[in-house]
User: What shape does this take?
Amino acid sequence: MERDLDQLYTALNAIKVLRSNVGSVFETVSNGLRADHGEEGKENKFMLELQDVLTTVNNNLRDVETAAANLTPPPGPFNLGNTAYLSQETTQERQALYGQLVNSYKWTDKIREYSTLAGNILATNSFNKTYKTFSTTKRRKTQTSNHNVPPEVIENLITGIDRLFPDVTINATRPFVPNPVIQASLGRVLKAIIAFKGLMIEWVIVKAHSESSDLWTESRYKVFRKVTENCHAAMCHFYSPTMPDLAVRSFMHWFHSYNTLFSCSCKRCGNHLHSNLPPTWRDLRTLEPYHEECK
Amino acid sequence: MGVTVVQNFPITENRTGPSTIELLTKRISALGAIQQGHFLVDCETYTSVPQLGNPRTVHILHNSEQPATVFSILETENKTIPLATDGLFDLLMIKMANFYTSKKQTKAESKGPRYEIGDFLVKLGTVTVSQNFKGVLVEVEYRPCVVPAMCWELMREFLQGFLGSTAQSAPPLYLQNRMQDIYSPIDTIHQYLEQFTIYRKAPGLRT
Amino acid sequence: MTSPGSAVDSLSAAIKCNIIPNQEYLLQGSVLDQYVEVLLHRLRGLCDNVDSGPESFNDHELCFTLRGNTPNSSMVLPLRVRRALDVPDAPWQLRYVGQHELGDKNRPTAVRSSIDMACSSTIVEFLTELGCRVDFEYIARGYMFRKGRMKITVSKIFKMGSMASKPNESVEPISQSYLVELSVLAPSGQDAIAEDMRIFAEQLKPLVQLEKIDYKRLAHIQ
Assistant: This one.
């Protein structure tokens, strides 16, 4: 068995050598006359070189033939295993293997790309908003509902956000006891009427100072109608039943960034106006201004 | 009432008044403006009779945007006092005809179409001083904002968008000291008076 | 779309149609302090808005005249400026009242031309620079009633104590009575309203006598 293997290795080696020399033949022919052939008798030198390489190739071929002759043919058919199936249908035209292989490769590639993107996006909006904590090790006090809290807690929350920013003035009225409706004036830019249900923000409407403080009439100005829509989006984004005052505080932080509504330019396109509107969107994390179309 | 900027649009050599208005109309319609009626701002000037002592001038202006109001600006040597009253002030001026006389030749007015784009109001006015054509005035109002300092950049961008290089880069003279104050309709009237004074002094077309 | 007419055009059209109220029909009287409560009760019953009660007002009125510099100039224009002291944001009122005509016995009320308008608070400076001088000023506090087009005011006139900076303090009444005025602002030529005013005045008869006052005769009483 070892002798067979030795002979096999010799034969394979011989083939390798033959191959490399044939490669060098073609290389020599394709390179043609080179600079180091000198000035005189270039062609002769080239011809000599070519002859040398071809004789080497001849010798190699003879070696391969002798080595192959020394090999004993195998006793029976090899056990090819699964690779036997490769010989069954070898014509590429009859078998759509290549096309199918390419398609499935593309598909898996795309799947991988899309799933990374989707994973990133979904991670930002974790839907894990259930009450229950599944850890049984520490016993937390049962979370009271967010819309059925005693009025003092709401009072504290409102005074808390009142103190948060100097240029946001809060007026609280209680038309629907005990849920307050607060009017937050952001400097001289705009005012927002925010209706609470317990500790959660339920409805926001943004208007100019000169307009009525009614919760139900929309603003006359397109820019404030757009900001109202964005406030609703933010209100839903910052909603967190487990930490309601953090939710309200984050919302107020985000809302406060609107005091530059008319004076700053969009971070992406650099202009103040896009389709006649200033940047009405504030990024939920970085608070940077963007146009509706640029976000 | 939002922040308003009143600006003169220089008429190039080979154009007439109506064709300039048409050019601006085309530009503003391309931006998506819709015409919403017309506007008219007019100004009449009265001077005091010598029996009253120091000469004083009273300008009475009307703006079709505030139809129930009459604006008057009193100018003495060192003071300017604005006043806004009901429409009957014109009758009162008639009663004061013994004390303040008007020079009919200096009646100035700016009138033309009025367009709305988004939250902007654009008015393209043809200025005539006692029936002689003097120039073109463009008024742009951004209705949601009432503090000039906050939205000047925004308005300049808008003005450049359709006036091109003729848009001023600095705010109007009257507003420069009042950028942080809340804007009111009398400020628009002051700007118009500023412009009308320049138009009246210019002989022929204002360049 | 037609262009808007100028304001002057619409004003002259309004004058032609006779819809601008530029005449005031007036009846005046007075009642002593101790009987004013009874009068207020009677008025409360007779006038509109029985349940909400009378409106009180606290006004500061300044009277200007515009006259020429020459001493015996015949051109004199009286103007009045009124502002509410209890509602600081309310607009100021500018008023021109002309000489009133008493007419003959058939005319029940005094008629005078009056032009009334609201104005911004810069009016005092404006009038001063225009050349007007303050003739006098006073504070009026009282109640106002309405009945249809008629306006009835019951007010006490106070003399200004100190300067205009603190007009609410240190005021003293000039008399121990209340001035009662019944007036209607109407366009010229609607004399029928005068008859209605006279009938209303009859209902207040024993408490207060509202009549047309001839100021020229008052000037002679010394």
Q: What stands out?
A: The interface with chain B takes residues 188-190, 208-210, 220-224, 261-263, 265, 271-273, 275-278 of chain A (CB under 8 Å). The longest strand of chain A covers residues 168-176. The beta strands of chain A are 168-176, 179-186, 190-197, 200-207, 281-282, 289-290.
